[in-house]
Design brief:
The protein is globular, with a radius of gyration of 20 Å. It has 2 domains: about 5-75 and about 160-339, QueA-like (3-Layer(aba) Sandwich), CATH 3.40.1780; about 75-145, QueA-like (Thrombin, subunit H, Beta Barrel). Helices cover about 25% and strands about 25% of the residues. By secondary structure, the protein is an alpha/beta fold.
């Protein structure tokens, strides 16, 4: 990262401007996106389709383990009404013993009773030191499933649709708990996963429940603190990763959330728990040899992790080429494979 960026604590960590027409805001058929392959040493860019991934890994020669995050997005955006009748949207952040804490704009007075469209009640207990609203409510996850909405990224500037309900979820999602999708995994289809296995590429699953820590903007890289997120790496998966690496094989992490879970395990020795690991340049990766990820917003933790992995100059050249070649950016956009 440049000296200027560090000194100013800039909120744009890659000097790239993405025009509105390059920002993907609508769901597309899974597996149809483009894939920019970034070779770090020597530097090279290759333009492929995501469906080519099994062939690309086979061409690399080294045996790969592909690690996917099997978290499932919950319907975390809950419409509610204030005592005045005014409608607000409450974003579920974390379960608590008395209900949950959420993110909501505007005034919330202690003692207020909020109601869902079906009449379920939540009592406002106040705000915590981070500004989240604390709500007392029973059967939170039942309420979210029945009345919540899929929390698509706010930059899309629209309400979620039935298409989002299907697309904004990986085909292998099975452990509910995320309030945002691990977007690198959105490109996979069952057929692509089967083709990986046919090419002798092992596919393994871990879990990291994506929370506000992943997508919260970084106002100052020097003082930013990640909010904790739960992760779990099954014992058999950890054992297979260790054996694979001992034999000289490579690990491909699908997404920045998968990367953070693997690196948290490497740093702490804990396969399960909460991580607040903030990966930024410079960082010495302990487990991950290759990274599959999307084109990221310029002010968040995912772009910093990607810069730490690829190198700022490499990533900037790749993003500039992607803009010239009309790639689509952000959560519903195209993908990159960094080798």
């Amino acid at each position: 990262m440049s000296r200027t960026t560090r000194e100013r604590g800039k909120t744009r960590f890659l000097d790239i401007t993405v025009p509105p027409e390059r920002i993907a805001t609508r769901a597309r058929p899974k597996g149809t996106s483009r894939l920019l392959v970034i070779d770090r040493e020597p530097f090279r860019l290759r333009h492929r389709r995501f469906s080519d991934l099994p062939d690309i890994l086979k061409e690399e020669g080294s045996p790969f383990l592909v690690i996917l995050n099997d978290t499932k997005v919950i319907k975390a955006m809950l419409p509610m009404f204030k005592p005045s009748g005014r409608r607000v949207l409450v974003l579920f952040v974390e379960r608590t013993p008395y209900g949950f804490k959420g993110m909501v704009k505007g005034r919330m007075r202690e003692g207020w009773i909020l109601r869902t469209p079906k009449g379920r009640e939540a009592k406002v207990l106040g705000r915590d030191e981070e500004g989240y609203v604390l709500l007392e409510m029973e059967d939170v996850f039942t309420v979210l499933e029945e009345e919540g909405r899929m929390p698509i990224p706010p930059y899309m500037g629209r309400e979620p649709t039935p298409e989002d309900e299907e697309y904004y979820q990986t085909v292998y999602a099975r452990n509910p708990g995320s309030i945002a999708a691990p977007t690198a995994g959105l490109h996979f289809t069952p057929e692509i996963i089967e083709r990986l296995k046919e090419e002798a590429v092992d596919v393994l699953y871990i879990t990291l429940h994506v929370g506000v820590g992943t997508f919260k903007p970084v106002k100052d890289i020097r003082t930013h603190r990640m909010e904790r997120e739960y992760y779990r790496i099954p014992e058999d998966v950890a054992r297979r990763i260790e054996e694979h690496r001992r034999r000289g094989g490579k690990v491909l992490a699908v997404g920045t959330t998968t990367t953070r879970a693997l690196e948290s395990w490497a740093l702490t020795g804990l396969r399960e728990g909460y991580t607040d690991l903030f990966i930024k340049p410079p960082y010495d990766f302990k487990v991950v040899d290759a990274l599959l990820t999307n084109f990221h917003l310029p002010d968040g933790t995912p772009i910093l992790l990607t810069m730490a992995f690829a190198g700022e100059d490499v990533l900037k050249r790749a993003y500039e080429e992607a803009l010239r070649r009309d790639y689509l950016f952000f959560s519903y956009g195209d993908a990159t494979l960094i080798l």
